[in-house]
Amino acid sequence: MNANITRLFEIASKPARLIVGLMSGTSVDGLDVALCKCSGAGIDTKLEIINFETVPYDDAFKKEVKSVFSRRDADLEKVCLLNSWIALQHANIISACLKKWKVAPAAVDLIASHGQTIYHAPKFLHKQPTFSNATLQIGDGDHIAFNTGIITISDFRQKHIAAGGEGAPLAVYGDYLIFSKAGENRIMLNIGGIANFTFLPGDLDAVRVFSSDTGTGNTLMDAYVQAHFPGKYFDQGAKIASAGKVNEGLLASLKENSFFKMGFPKTTGPELFNAAYLERARVLSGTGPLQHEDMMATLNRFSADTIVNAIKKNADELENVIIYTSGGGMHNPLLMENIQDQLPGFLFRTTDQLAIDPDAKEAVLFAILANECVAGGQIRVGDGKTGIPFVSMGKISFPL
């Protein structure tokens, strides 16, 4: 038997595994690195975060990724080059974190790498009848494995698509395994570049578990700040948006898109919600030049309203619902105020109260997916007809 297969069998047979979970989101602000201890599998999964850090990307990294990110005219040679280059950057970051945490690479069982999304193309968006859903994450797992010496699980989204899904959101699988609680209906709301939520029923019925994107989270706000405030990457503390007023005409036009008329679940990305989307809405509404503060206030409200609308459509008649927030958007006080004001019947908490750092949640969830890939594989979530296929995900890369 190949020594790598023997090693993998040993890891799968252990009562607990040490896994490094990685997440690099569409905001391209940094790499989330979560060192997790995972024991058991499936509904018996137990997880402890040993260490966590978000390592900011420098301007050179951001520039390289943005040269191909969400662009239909991306340079194919650059995509090829970045596939390995990003993996090497991530491998270096992992090694530096382990050294800082005084953890020997040999003590780590697995790395779970989400990679860097550069294009998301669900069928409703590309509208080409010959082709199905598609998505692309780069940051090759073989390069990470070889340069860290640690077995790496990566490219999770492809199996989801192969089984009939759209490649997102994947949080539903991990959410169900570690956040479900008898007697409490929970919504796990993650506000990253794109916002998504998972519904976890209090009766623990896996068939009722549900997950979907809602639309833009931080993407449009971040893009506007980066275009008009050199040196800034986001509206820290919502200072810009808080100084403005919502333009109701523009807000109404922003909501006029077929995406919001589609049923759930659905996925989207910056391929739809970008500067061109904002410009079309401005023209459609006949909106003239706005103060930056007013534009940001309107974009902030747009994100909030679409999140609220999605939650109401899927959970408005439920009782005893608690919304647990995570992701960068939870740090935007105006966004959270705009959401909470429209959902007075819901309680709001963060995943801190579930012993999971909200900023670490997505990296942790990929660690769980890697754990399932190796030691589980019996997840039964959703009803098989809601874009949540019954699959274990991830491709295995050996160090040698």
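^ that was protein a. below is b, sequence first then the tokens
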Amino acid sequence: MEIVLWGFVFGAILQFARLNCFDTIVGMAVLRDFSIAKTIAFTIGLGILLFQVEIQLGWADFHVKPLLVAGVVVGGLIFGVGMSLLGYCPGTVAISLGQGRLDALVGIVGALCGSLVFADLYPRIVPLLGPDFGALSVRDLFSSHALFEVVSVMLAMLFMGIALFLQRLERRDWRWLYAAVGLALLNAMLALPMFEGRPMGASSAFPLAAMALSGMQGSAYWDKVFSTGSWELWFLAGAFLAGLVFAVLRGSFRLVSVPDLWIRYRGSEPGQRFFWAFIGGFLLLFGARTAGGCTSGHIISGGMELALSSLIFAVAVFAAFLATGHYFYRVRGRQQTGNTVLNTNG
């Protein structure tokens, strides 16, 4: 039950700032809303400081993901495309399902299918993920510990400065900042052995659930994700409950098939939205498992530890995410508008 509570807190933080919503996430992909970028940047910046304090005091250990170059880069690109098409992350999709978003449900089905395909192909994919440079972080680039401490503080200030600069550009409300502080504190607490002794994450829950449902418990990938996936499955259950509880309390729970921003760019046809939600969910989880993590478990948690694999993954994700957003929504949206005008005039 404690893990469910942590997941509930995670979900409460994200839904408070609407960071789980399709319109907010895809709003970033089409450069209309920088809430996601601001939150992630500030969370990483503050998290770097908190985590370094914990390490210095001997309260926490590093959980740096290995730098498997092809896996991190290719997985990040696939993940970024999937996130843009789906409009949710592995963690936020559970929250949005709790709020009644039917496209999130379809995305989860796609994610389970993508996870299952990856699990089946895992023995053949593993040799392609390297070269493996091991669990490298920025601290491994410096022989002087004091110099690393200085650099880590500078990087923390840089990340938080980027977030504040973006806020100055768009001048939205400050809910994203409260959420960023909450996420950094939550992740710092989870890293403490007195609580969980591990960073937060979400994507391992999907292959575990997919393999359990399909009877693949004896597969080569089952043992690899069982421990982490079990924890994350309960964590996502808490996130789902947060979405449901707060939606009911606010009186905002309703079944929605097509998000508003999707209608703006792609139309109101539920079939089309469900199709791309499934494709997006499939790519999202296939990419996450190829890279070994997702937005929460790789970019945020790994970013707080200054893991090189996580920083490279973040660059690959946002490159593909923004490129897909530009082509799939903005360009296609303009084409659709133009065709509508021509058909009307005709």
